Amino acid sequence: MNISDRERVFTLRGEDERGASDLDDTLLLIPGPTNLSKRVREVMAGPQLPHVGSEFYSMFRETVGLARYVFKNEKGDQFVFTGSGTIGMESSVVSLVSRGERTLTLINGYFGHRMLMLNQVHGAKADKLEFTGGKAADPDSLRSQLRKAKYSAVFITHVDTSSSVLNPVRELVEECAKAGVAAVVDSVCAIGGLPLDFDSLGADIVFTASQKALAGPPGAVLVAVSKRAMEKMEKRKSPIESYYMNLLRWKPVMDDPKMYLATPATQVLQALREALLEAKEEGIENRWARHRKLGEITRASVEGWGQRFVAEEGHRADTVTSFWVEEGKAGPIQKTLESEHHVMVSRGIYDDKDRMIRIGHFGTLQPEALRKALGSMGEVMEELGVSAHQVAVAKRRSRR
Ligand SMILES: Cc1ncc(COP(=O)(O)O)c(C=O)c1O
Description:
Number of helices: 15
CATH topology of the largest domain: Aspartate Aminotransferase, domain 2
CATH superfamily of the largest domain: Type I PLP-dependent aspartate aminotransferase-like (Major domain)
Bound molecules: pyridoxal-5'-phosphate
Structural class: alpha/beta
Helix content: 40-55%
Strand content: 15-25%
Largest sheet: 7 strands, mixed
């Protein structure tokens, strides 16, 4: 797809597709946002916290410290500020890459395309290496591409939420390091649910958003930046072409929350702090293990239904699962599941809207709740006649 295709705003779901369920008891199995824990919801309902005063300053410092904990970032700089995951993507590009520099974006789905577009928008000579058909990015292909041109940065999606492809991030970052190229990792659909150790990974920028595996409300972006990348930004010949998305401007605020750049979404940050505290109480390694289980449970169900995964074997994420269904069935599955069982899942993006289902299984979700919801989903699939057998019969008929 070309850039103008990707510039369109698209509808993930319309009013008409919404089932009749009450949101209060709906299980969100969409790929973000997730259900919020009681603790997080209570925090959000509290009195307005001003962004000046010791209560905010200490809350903010604690939030940044907790962000370091979930990224395993002791060596680099840590940022937390208001904005969605896209602000994480765009601030990485605009802060690190100067106009005219050559960059490479690895693409396994919609969010890779968005990253490429952001590089184009900000004037990079933006090359891409695309892996289609549910394939993960291949370190050998990256190595040979890095030999062909002098790149200043490579952009990698940890898990592309559209295809649910999990990339071998460590190997890819290693190739970048060997070639002396900066590596930026979009870990929006991974951090908190999938193993990531910023200090040992060696990437230059890794970012995520509050509303996915961290189980906070949407509205905060968390970015880890290596000392090397901070130096690169400091030494740029041309200034960073953004006010709000300029990481150098945010640095003093991270060091001292009394500094003002823009009014933070204080409730969102308070809620994020609570969600991060819950992650720490669980223990990040335990959280990764729980997500591994959630991934296994989901994959076993999809296999049981006889459906085909979008992502190739060995590269299926433990945070989101995408699978193909018979053309035209994705809408009815989504709608019936929501209205009859109060479980919300997502459909594919763009052309895949009617033939792909995406299940988000992250955050504070427990295996038992997931098993129950997938049981309901199995019933819906059966009710609607969506099964591998049905698909095979339909194909045979269409060939006649
Ligand atoms: C992998 C990935 N990157 C970036 C984004 C953009 O985040 P946001 O929608 O919060 O701007 C998303 C959102 O789903 C995502 O899944």
